[in-house]
């Protein structure tokens, strides 16, 4: 039995009175999860919508609590880190992580960044040792599979694309996922939303199909990943 952690980050709902306002990234992620749960109904499933229910931003007091040894933390400091501890436990106990995210201003939503800031934490998800020279940070977690599902209004953010230098969402997800213990990453992207033309329709259909196929394939191989 495996555990799947599903993180949505769009501020939009998946179903709205006006369907044009529906979140595409959430819809595609749901297609993946539905197939996964159909194939593996006994797996544990954890869901967080950080777009609608965002974690708090880290503060100076949060940083102070993080760098205070466990045995010396006050009750207030333990309370400050309670959500961080809970979300780190969700990540550390999961085998596969699905993160859906729209591209806002060429990067990830602030809500998703807040989630990462809460869980990429010294002595919890990474260690720090200056004896390693110029690369003192090292992940503590390992062996996880990540599926990222992104949506964007424009297009061409891939390597060699017309907007290669402007797309900071996927590269940021790749960089940060290292500290979630991710060793294998799959990416599904939906583009052209602002154009609303046949290219967009084709991109949505392709992303939904990719989600179905990938979920089906991973559902039979996750135990060996």
TrEMBL record:
It holds the Pfam family Flavodoxin_2. Its cofactor is FMN. Residues 4-212 form the Flavodoxin-like fold domain. Keywords: Flavoprotein, FMN, NAD, Oxidoreductase. The keyword Oxidoreductase applies. Its EC number is 1.6.5.-, 1.7.1.17. Also exhibits azoreductase activity. Catalyzes the reductive cleavage of the azo bond in aromatic azo compounds to the corresponding amines. Homodimer. Belongs to the azoreductase type 1 family. This is FMN dependent NADH:quinone oxidoreductase.
